[in-house]
Design goal:
The protein has 13 helices and twelve strands. The protein has helices spanning 50-57, 84-90, 102-105, 112-123, 128-141, 147-151, 160-172, 190-207, 218-224, 242-247, 252-260, 262-265, 278-283; strands spanning 3-15, 21-34, 39-44, 65-74, 77-78, 95-98, 178-182, 210-214, 227-232, 235-241, 318-320, 325-327. It has an eight-stranded mixed sheet, sandwiched between helices. A four-stranded antiparallel sheet has the order 2-1-4-5, with helices on one face. 42% of the residues are buried.
Length: 340
């Protein structure tokens, strides 16, 4: 197992207008597994905890947010119990990271080639000429047409698409075993998005490394990922192979997500689940998004679920096989949905 996240909880403390402390439960027992050589999509609504999960396991949460319990085993080592120094050695070496704000990753005062060679120097000892050669080689593999010219360029000289290719090169240049890409196509036009996703797909397969792609687009999960973990209110409510989850979703939240966007799933040639019809789309979500300061007892999705009943006042078990499982009292049943 490459990455095994177990029962991850995190909180963020704030103060209201009267100075009273309030605590938001931003992660609520998030658990998922990623096998080496496979690509896992972490999907869900905005503010569901996807990016926070990545930040938490990499020790990048910013105060006042903090992890309160859980484990994140990377190659058997618990990242949450590592020192900052040991984590820094892993980040950029064994674990590569592509963040949403790609341009902010680059130092605007330093040429592209220098940044790529310095990234190598932090984690390995190589002669300057070799590091420069490796920088140009990986830029060429990223589809940058004039790698030598790009190495002499400044970040502000590059288009958004070229910046993203450079950032991916930075994440991969030290040959990591895991690549985490957080909304890797944010801010790009649709043509460039597809080019970047194709590039990531090819590189992850070619290098045979594990990939964690954080996205709100189920079409990305369908076309580019092997497995999917669905997050709601800081908790993974369903995980399994993409084909199984999208064809036979076991959690009501997953079904509603699929019902809202079936046409996008045709990109990946995945079958659309039963219920992903016009009627299901019209039904949609009921109630407002979850209030992380006042989450319900029991099932976190209870207040928005068309299927909820008295048993949902207690925390639902994880139901299913080790391959495809959902955190729902009704998973694996054919209980009808009640009217909204």
């Amino acid at each position: 197992m490459l990455l095994d996240v177990q029962d991850l909880h995190a909180e963020r403390a704030t103060r209201d207008t009267e100075g009273r402390e309030r605590v938001a439960r931003v992660l609520n027992g998030a658990s998922f597994r990623l096998v080496k050589g496979r690509v896992l999509a972490l999907v869900g609504e905005q503010q569901s905890g996807k990016s926070l999960t990545a930040s938490a396991i990499l020790g990048l949460l910013q105060p006042p947010a903090q992890v309160v319990r859980g484990r994140a085993l990377f190659e058997g080592q618990d990242l949450l119990r590592m020192s900052d120094t040991d984590l820094a050695r892993l980040r950029g070496a064994r674990i590569g990271l592509v963040v949403q704000s790609a341009r902010n990753t680059l130092d605007p005062t330093m040429r592209i080639g220098t940044q790529l060679t310095r990234a190598q120097g932090v984690h390995r000892h190589a002669p300057r000429a070799e590091a420069a050669w490796r920088a140009e080689t990986i830029m060429s593999s990223m589809g940058i047409p004039d790698a030598r010219g790009c190495a002499q360029a400044w970040p502000d000289d590059l288009s958004p698409g070229m910046v993203q290719r450079v950032v991916i090169a930075l994440a991969l240049i030290n040959e990591p075993q895991l690549l985490i890409a957080d909304e890797p196509t944010a801010g790009l036009d649709i043509t460039t998005q597809l080019q970047i996703l194709d590039l990531l797909h090819v590189e992850l397969r070619r290098r045979r490394i594990g990939g964690l792609i954080i996205t709100r687009d189920l079409g990305v999960a369908a076309q580019y990922c092997d497995d999917v973990a669905v997050m709601y209110a800081g908790q993974v409510v369903e995980q399994g192979p993409v084909a199984q989850v999208f064809a036979r979703p076991a959690h009501p939240f997953t079904r509603t997500l699929l019902a809202a966007t079936p046409e996008r799933l045709s990109l990946g040639q995945q079958p659309v689940a039963e219920g992903a019809s016009t009627g299901a789309r019209a039904q949609g979500f009921s109630g407002p998004p979850p209030d992380l300061f006042a989450l319900p007892q029991g099932c976190l999705y209870r207040d928005r679920c068309h299927q909820a009943e008295a048993r949902c006042d207690t925390p639902p078990p994880l139901v299913g096989s080790g391959v495809h499982a959902a955190r729902c009292h009704f998973a694996g049943t054919s209980a009808p949905q009640r009217a909204a």
